[in-house]
Amino acid sequence: MTDRSLLPCGNKPNCVSTQDNRDAYNIEPFRLTERANLNLVEQAALRLPGAKLAEQQDHYLRIECTSKIMRFVDDLELRIEGNSLIVRSESRLGYSDFGVNRKRADQLRELLKADNLIQ
């Protein structure tokens, strides 16, 4: 799968991103603390429901999140650039995600805050 972390979302309401300026798709930036690194971000992200590591590169992670009942797979892409964590969460299938990806980004934000990885 291609790294899409820096791309804005498409036009279907099944994606959120820190890189998208449109209100329906935008999520607030994640500002990293000095102690944050990719391994600690990965540990936090893997505590999300249904999460498993799919790909890891130098400053990039792709986490696959599988829904419990219907087994839908969403891609959570994370990239560290300077003191920012770029976050993009998108459903692989379907038109609407009923807010699941925004909820996942909010859950990730809370996990990272609890671990003192973001401000």
UniProtKB/TrEMBL annotation:
Pfam families: DUF1499. This is DUF1499 domain-containing protein. It comes from Vibrio zhanjiangensis.
